[in-house]
């Protein structure tokens, strides 16, 4: 059965969804599945950060509800994340919860400022190979995060996980009326309770809260000393959160063939973190695993599912905590394994694709994956991937510049034609391409098919003319286009300390 095809405008229309019982049911059930999957994740991230499970659970609730209203990417899920937990763990260990909340609030302010400054526009400089590496690394991290639930556990866990996988894969072939992950969770829970299987459950992950979140103001002195302590963590949290959120938003854009407002998403992440901090949450950002459950597995497309994911999370852990605690972890592990399988870009690792793809593109993807998986930090992986892409691109472009001698010049004159884009990488070897000793007294360097991009190139051209002058010869540069001529006029002769 094929999924309902929606135009981009309708996909993001909350009102249209509210008027359609079928689509509204999809959004509601998607939100419920995501909420169930968020519970063990939020608890485990709280443990990583060194805080009470309630801090992570309440953060997931407030992040999801707030970003559903102020975010720029409909159907994307934001909550407490492992990347943020890794960033703030040292701060919690050294200064405690109050400094963590202060850092979350400051990170939210920084994200709003970065959003206003247009940081989202930097996404255009992230190559496709980095995006592919980002997605593949996430798939690996999602899968490896399930391994602790599969090692050293009762043998009954394995058939339960296998049954869950079979339901998630097989049910959509019969009907898509109800998300298959939700069916797997309900059926496996019912079987486990009915038969009395002794297997790990959600309750074993940590204590669930029994009260609603309340306003929380960190008890820290408003001094420069406090700011100096929290600012590095807040800035790192802001950058990591924005990078993961904007990359995930771009991924969902491609997955749903829709466009989202990245600037609004950046600002929305800041607002959501401020709200989260005011309710004592640990902060967070977009989660690709839960977003995949929402968008790909459950076919949600609007803010309704994101809002309900947060609302259901609160209802489940506060109002129905005793029941939720009985859900076997095997059911949630099966869901997340399928999410990892669906997240991986299998085409990118197909041997045929790898043989066809330029080695530089594959190297960028591999660098992104390796660093991300090794550090468990998506920001590090993306940064290394982008830097690798820049270096390889510069090396490749450096070899497309050429200097050729023009035939039949005027007597006593030699004409060289320079072709290509000239910048620091491609112009470094330019100075060695001329015969200073053997050339006649008059040399013409024709730049009609070249373009000057930086001061390094102007300095190289100055070095060339200076070498000819030292030999008592004259080198004339001609054919510069408008921008190149202006850059050359402004900088020539002023890069060696003369002016």
TrEMBL record:
SUPFAM superfamilies: SpoIIaa-like. It is a multi-pass membrane protein. Its main location: membrane. It is found in: Membrane. The chain crosses the membrane at residues 28-49, 55-72, 77-94, 100-123, 130-149, 155-175, 182-202, 222-243, 302-320, 364-393. This is SulP family transporter. The lineage of its organism: Bacteria, Bacillati, Actinomycetota, Actinomycetes, Mycobacteriales. Residues 403-499 form the STAS domain. The keyword Phosphoprotein does not apply. The keyword Cytoplasm does not apply. Keywords: Membrane, Transmembrane, Transmembrane helix. Pfam families: STAS (PF01740), Sulfate_transp (PF00916). It comes from Gordonia terrae NBRC 100016.
């Amino acid at each position: 059965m094929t999924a309902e095809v929606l135009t981009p405008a309708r996909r993001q229309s909350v009102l249209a969804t509210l008027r359609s019982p079928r689509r509204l049911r999809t959004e509601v059930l998607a939100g419920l599945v995501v909420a169930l999957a968020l519970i063990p994740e939020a608890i485990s991230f709280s443990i990583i950060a060194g805080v009470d499970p309630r801090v992570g659970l309440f953060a997931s609730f407030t992040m999801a509800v707030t970003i559903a209203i102020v975010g720029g990417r409909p159907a994307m899920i934001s909550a407490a994340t492992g990347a943020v937990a890794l960033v703030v763990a040292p701060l919690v260990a050294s200064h405690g919860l109050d400094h963590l909340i202060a850092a979350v609030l400051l990170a939210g302010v920084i994200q709003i400022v970065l959003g206003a400054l247009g940081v989202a526009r930097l996404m255009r400089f992230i190559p496709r190979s980095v995006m592919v590496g980002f997605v593949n690394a996430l798939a690996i991290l999602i899968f490896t995060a399930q391994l602790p639930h599969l090692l050293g556990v009762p043998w009954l866990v394995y058939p339960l996980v296998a049954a869950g996988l079979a339901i998630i894969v097989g049910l959509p072939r019969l009907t898509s009326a109800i998300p298959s992950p939700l069916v797997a969770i309900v059926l496996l829970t019912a079987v486990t309770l009915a038969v009395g299987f002794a297997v790990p459950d959600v309750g074993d992950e940590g204590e669930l809260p029994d009260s609603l979140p309340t306003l929380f103001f960190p008890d820290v002195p408003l001094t420069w000393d406090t700011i100096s302590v929290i600012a590095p963590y807040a800035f790192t949290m802001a950058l990591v959160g924005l990078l993961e959120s904007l990359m995930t938003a771009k991924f969902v854009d491609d997955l749903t063939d829709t466009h989202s407002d990245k600037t609004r998403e950046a600002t929305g992440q800041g607002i959501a973190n401020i709200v989260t901090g005011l309710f004592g949450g640990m902060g967070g950002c977009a989660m690709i695993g839960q977003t995949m459950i929402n968008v790909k597995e459950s076919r949600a497309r609007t803010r309704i599912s994101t809002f309900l994911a947060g609302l259901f999370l609160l209802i489940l852990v506060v109002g129905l905590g005793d029941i939720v605690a009985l859900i076997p972890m095997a059911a949630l592990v099966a869901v997340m394994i399928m999410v990892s399988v669906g997240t991986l870009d299998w085409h990118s690792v197909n041997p045929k694709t790898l043989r066809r793809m330029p080695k530089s593109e594959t190297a960028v993807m591999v660098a992104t994956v390796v660093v991300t998986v090794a550090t468990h930090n998506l920001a590090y992986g993306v940064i290394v991937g982008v830097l690798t892409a820049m270096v390889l691109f510069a090396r490749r472009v450096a070899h497309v510049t050429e200097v050729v001698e023009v035939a039949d010049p005027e007597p006593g004159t030699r004409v060289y034609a320079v072709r290509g884009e000239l910048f620091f990488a491609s112009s470094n070897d330019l100075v060695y391409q001329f015969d200073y000793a053997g050339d006649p007294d008059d040399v013409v360097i024709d730049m009609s098919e070249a373009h000057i991009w930086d001061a390094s190139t102007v300095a190289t051209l100055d070095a060339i003319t200076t070498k000819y002058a030292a030999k008592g010869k004259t080198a004339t540069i001609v054919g510069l286009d408008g921008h190149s001529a202006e850059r050359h006029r402004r900088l020539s002769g002023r890069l060696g300390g003369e002016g």
